[in-house]
Structures are given as C-alpha cells and as structure tokens.
Give the backbone structure.
Amino acid sequence: MTSSVIDPVVRSTWQVPAFDTPLWLGRQHAFCAVIPLINEGERIKNLLARMAALGIASHADIIIVDGGSTDGSLVLDALQQVGVRGLLVKTGPGKLSAQLRCAYAFALDQGYEGIVTIDGNDKDDPDAIPRFIEALQQGVDFVQASRFVDGGVAENTPASRDFAIRFIHAPMLSLTSGFKWTDTTQGFRAYSRKLLLDPKVAIFRDVFMTYELLAYLSYRAPKLGYRCVELPTVRRYPKGEVPTKISAFKGNLSVLEILFKACRGGFNPT
C-alpha cells in the first residue's frame, strides 16, 4: 500500500485550480468515485439514482466535482439522499482536466488509495465500478472502460465518433504507448494512488486544462511500466442526442491536437 502521507514540499508544488467544498462528510472507504460535470440536469440525477440502486456508496465514497453548474441540479440535501459524500465546485479557470485536478488533489489529500472517475452525463453503466476497484486492489494502476472489448456494449455511438476512436485515437495511443488500447476518449477510468502521485507523471500542472489528462495518462502510464487493463463496460448514447461538451468542429479538432501532442511526449514533465 502506498503511504497516505504526501511530502509537504511536494504538495506545495501542485498546481490545482481554486475550488470550494460546499459538502464533505468525510472519508469512509479506501476508494472514491469522482463524477466531473457541469449542467447535466436530469442526467446526473439519473446516474446518481442508478448508483444508489446498485449500492455503489458501500464500495466507494461518491464525490462530485462541478465546473460551475447553473441548472439547479446539485441541491445538497438531494445529493446526500442518494449517497453523495462530497461536492467540490471549481472556481478557478479551466474545464475537464482542471476539474479533475481539483478532485484528484482533494482525494489524495484525504488519503484515498485509488480513484474511479465516471462522467456525469449518464452514458456509462456504474455497475462496473466495483470491478474497477477490485482491479486496483489486485495491483492494477490504470483501468480503462471499453465498450469495444469482449463483453462491452456500444449503443447508439455516433458514426463519426466511433470511426475516430477505432481508427485514429486508440490506434495512435496504442502505437506510441506500447499498450493496446481500444477505447481512449471516454473518462470512465480508475487510477491507483501510486500512479497519480508519481513525479514522472506529474498530473498537477496547469498545462492540463481541457481534455489533456485523458490522452496524456493513456500515453504516459504504459510508457512508465504501470499495470494497465481495459475492462468491458456499457456505454449508451440516447437516441437522437449526443450528450457531450465537445463541440462538433472546434472541440473535435482540439481533441486531435491534444492527441498528437500527447503521442509526441509533449505533456511529459521536464
């Protein structure tokens, strides 16, 4: 087990966006499930209801990291009723990777041994969370959800996104990282404490503001010899709707630019 004590000198070098903590009930478990979101409305309510029905809170502490929602979907009393133990609200700059840096810094400070991350848009099936935790307990450092491995389910995935993942994103990261990935753009993942604290990984840097952390960790972790696995999961897009914060042209172009930079080692710490 990795020590829960973080060197104060090292901790002082972390670049973490400012955030508030309107809800924190304390750590109960060795692992937590982090949900990044912004303005997910009924989708986050549905996801939390599913997690409550599955008893996820008996396996991991549920922590939401909000990018600044204005839709009224995160009422504290309602969150506690479905087992949420923490709500962080990012007040500093940045998007997804900035939110994740807030949540990961908070979770590591609290002493969690590992972190599962699942998107708040209700596309993923949270019943896989206990299997992710089990993999971490068995010594895996990076668990990636995959709809494309045996046992996985891809439902209503937009054709353009399916093509980009299968023939551009996953192949490039597989080639350059040395690990055969199949599903590299989704954020349903789990990481060990050891991986997230490694100074050769160095996730707490302001270069990670949008979607950089996802591509970077898929590249960097295998290169450093960490144990990585993909586990089958279900990922469903609602018919006639694509719940995503990535815009059709500019957003997808940015994702490709990030991919190319990650595969060249452009996010590696110096």
